[in-house]
Write a structure and sequence with these properties.
It is a single chain. The chain is mostly helical. It is built from three helices and no strands. It is rod-shaped and about 150 Å long. It has helices at 12-15, 37-41, 45-138. The longest helix is centred in the middle third of the chain and has 94 residues, at 45-138. InterPro entries: USBP1-like, USHBP1_PDZ-bd.
C-alpha cells in the first residue's frame, strides 16, 4: 500500500499485527511530514516496545541457532577427521596384512618348489635304480657254474 494512503482495505487483524508501519487510524505515516512518525510515536509506543522485544527475541534466537549450527559444524568436522584417521589406519593395516600374506605365499611357493625338486630327484634316482636292477636281472650271470 502506498505511503499516506487510507487503509480502507486493512482488516482489523492487520491493524494489530505489528508487522508494518500502519497506525491504528488506518494510514501509513509519511516520514518528514507534520503528521508523520513523531506525532504517531506517542500513540504507538507500546507497539514499538512490542516490536523491539520481538526483534530482540528474533536476534537472540538467531544467535542461538548460529551458535548451535557452528557447534554442529565443528562436531561434524571433527567426526569427518576421526573417520579419515580411522580409514587411514585401516588402509595401513590392510596394506600390512596384504604384504604379510604375500610374503607368506612366496615362502610357501618356495617350499613347494623345493619339495617338487626333491620329489623329481627322488623319482629320477628310483627310476635309475629300477633300470639298474632290471639290467642286472636280464643278464645271465657268468660267474655261476652250471651243473
Amino acid at each position: 500500500m502506498p505511503v499516506g494512503e487510507p487503509a480502507e482495505q486493512i482488516t482489523a487483524d492487520c491493524a494489530e499485527c505489528a508487522m508494518c508501519d500502519r497506525t491504528q487510524s488506518g494510514t501509513v505515516p509519511v516520514l518528514g511530514t507534520s503528521g508523520g512518525r513523531r506525532a504517531v510515536s506517542n500513540a504507538s509506543l507500546p507497539r514499538e516496545k512490542k516490536l523491539k522485544a520481538r526483534v530482540q527475541e528474533l536476534v537472540s534466537a538467531l544467535e542461538r541457532l548460529t551458535k548451535s549450527s557452528e557447534i554442529r559444524h565443528q562436531q561434524s568436522a571433527e567426526f569427518v577427521n576421526d573417520l579419515k584417521r580411522a580409514n587411514s589406519n585401516l588402509v595401513a593395516a590392510y596394506e600390512k596384512a596384504k604384504k604379510k600374506h604375500q610374503n607368506k605365499l612366496k615362502k610357501l611357493e618356495s617350499q613347494m618348489m623345493a619339495m617338487v625338486e626333491r620329489h623329481e630327484t627322488q623319482v629320477r634316482m628310483l627310476k635309475q635304480r629300477i633300470a639298474l636292477l632290471e639290467e642286472e636281472n636280464s643278464r645271465p650271470h657268468t660267474n655261476e657254474t652250471s651243473l
